[in-house]
Amino acid sequence: MAYIMVDIESDGPIPGDYSMICFGAVIVEEGLTKTFYGQLKPISDKFIPEALAVSGFTREQTLAFDDPKSVMENFAAWLKEVVKDRPVFISDNNGFDWMFICWYFHHFTGSNPFGHSSYNLGSLYKGIVKDTFQNFKHLRKTTHTHHPVDDAKGNAEALLTIKKEMGLKIKF
Q1: Roughly what angle, to the nearest 10 degrees, separates helices 148-166 and 121-129?
Q2: What stretch or stretches form a coiled coil here (predicted)?
Q3: Residues forming a β-bridge with 25
């Protein structure tokens, strides 16, 4: 299995009514050199200005982004190229990130290369330290910028640290 750390930015709380603006993915392995970045044209006229502002883009900029179908097809092709077996989706907030990625894959390509499940990095860390009040974010090395590749890299760094320093049995 290959763990793919994913982070998305959107202009609202749910896919379909709102749009995924951009996303980043990184293969969790030493070096974190295999990345994907996509910017997607909005699929809805609806957006929440405060949600969009987190991404750092204006509505006008997003309207010039790439067609969501081609971005998702390119992401699926990238996964097929860089992952030798099964890709495993993991993110800081899989309830949110997974919802958009899964919906976009099914809506625009007819299937999801990740299958039907995802992993939550925060929950994994809480289990390892046996404390639901703890947070893994201090393990990031890359600054959390809300650029999804940066954020995915920081989260992947945290997972690598959890493996190395805390003894997580996980195979990359």
Answers
A1: 20
A2: none
A3: 6, 36
Q: What is the DSSP letter of 137?
A: G
User: Residues 32-71: pLDDT tens digits?
Assistant: 999 999 999 999 999 999 999 999 999 999 999 999 999 9
Percentage with pLDDT > 70 across the chain: 100
**For residue 70, what pLDDT is reported?**
98
What is the per-residue pLDDT across 78-110, written as a single tens digit (0 to 9) for each?
Answer: 999 999 999 999 999 999 999 999 999 999 999
Count CB-CB contacts under 10 A for residue 6: 27
Q: Are 6 and 145 in contact (CB under 8 A)?
A: no
**Cβ burial 48-73 (10 Å sphere, 16+ → b, else e):** eeebbeebebeeeebeebeebeebbe
User: Is 147 tagged catalytic?
Assistant: no
CATH fold of 2-166, please?
Nucleotidyltransferase; domain 5 (3.30.420)
Which contiguous run of DSSP H or E holds residue 38? Answer: strand 35-39
